[in-house]
Design goal:
Ferritin; mainly alpha; 2 domains; single chain
């Protein structure tokens, strides 16, 4: 079948994309310990290969995969989680729908096959079972509490004490103590629930997320001497933490990004502003000098 030059190029691009994703899914399947997930990934890899062979009928060529893309998404999936890596890759392919619609003008079968494959892939991705996602709620709990409590505490202490090392140490002690309390509470809460989640792992995820957040917020106070600069960096770090984690959750769990990000950032910075005002009043009403 003779194709126009533009469609011929798009067919080759689609073919290269399918064989690349075939290799990504196969590498992930080989590295996966769960028999359940291994089977799903292998099935998707086979579907991608069939898709590649469909495009090959029209290109008449063998195409090499994109080695950099294979390495990149394999690494992302191994480091940040299987579901996150795969869904991030699939979201990056949304523009392919526009391409496939154009190709369908010359190859009518293309649109139907692609729609069927995409639907099938989504069904398979939705039944992936990954431990990290079971404990996202615990990580959100630890991070949210640390952001709200510690940004507020640091803002209040900044104006009340006006000594960066003292503020950093006070915030660190407060944060570590609070993380242990949160981890213990999450352990007891998870233990009282009926489910597959391990109380010990839930408490570890909660406490770990809390401690990491605490360290990100207090480190400016241990390095710099200007307490307003330290507060600015701490608040900036809190927004970055919210941005990164919200992006992760929005991809892995298919939830709206901006709504959740603005809500979390608004609460955290709002509490910080209120606490800063309280610190200002405490310093002036009680005449505290450190």
């Amino acid at each position: 079948m003779a194709l126009s030059p533009a469609t011929g190029k798009e067919v080759l691009d689609s073919q290269r994309n399918e064989i690349t994703e075939h290799h990504i899914y196969m590498k992930l399947a080989q590295a996966e310990k769960s028999t359940h997930n291994k089977g799903i990934l292998t099935k998707i890899a086979q579907d991608e290969l069939e898709h590649y062979n469909f495009w090959k009928q029209y290109s008449g060529q063998e195409i090499e995969p994109d080695r950099w893309k294979i390495f990149k998404f394999y690494l992302i999936a191994r480091v940040l989680g299987l579901t996150f890596g795969i869904k991030l890759m699939e979201k990056g392919e949304e523009n392919a729908q526009v391409t496939y619609t154009r190709i369908a003008g010359e190859i009518p079968e293309a649109q139907k096959i692609v729609e069927e494959e995409d639907s099938h892939e989504q069904e398979l991705l939705n039944i992936l079972n990954e431990e990290k996602l079971q404990y996202v709620g615990s990580m959100v709990l630890g991070m949210n509490d640390a952001l709200v409590e510690l940004t507020g505490a640091l803002a209040g202490l900044t104006l009340a004490l006006q000594n960066t090392h003292l503020i950093g140490l006070t915030g660190g002690i407060t944060g570590i103590a609070a993380s242990l309390s949160m981890a213990a509470s999450e352990y007891l809460s998870t233990k009282s629930e009926e489910g597959e989640k391990s109380p010990a792992k839930a408490s570890l995820y909660t406490g770990g997320a809390y401690v990491i957040t605490v360290l990100m917020l207090i480190f400016p106070y241990l390095i710099f001497s200007d307490y307003f600069v330290c507060l600015g960096i701490a608040l900036f770090n809190s927004v970055v933490i919210i941005l990164i984690f919200t992006f992760y959750v929005s991809i892995a769990q298919d939830v709206p990004f901006w709504k959740r990000f603005l809500e979390m950032a608004g609460i955290s910075l709002g509490v910080a502003c209120i606490s800063f005002g309280i610190g200002f009043l405490v310093r002036h009403i009680f005449g505290i000098e450190v």
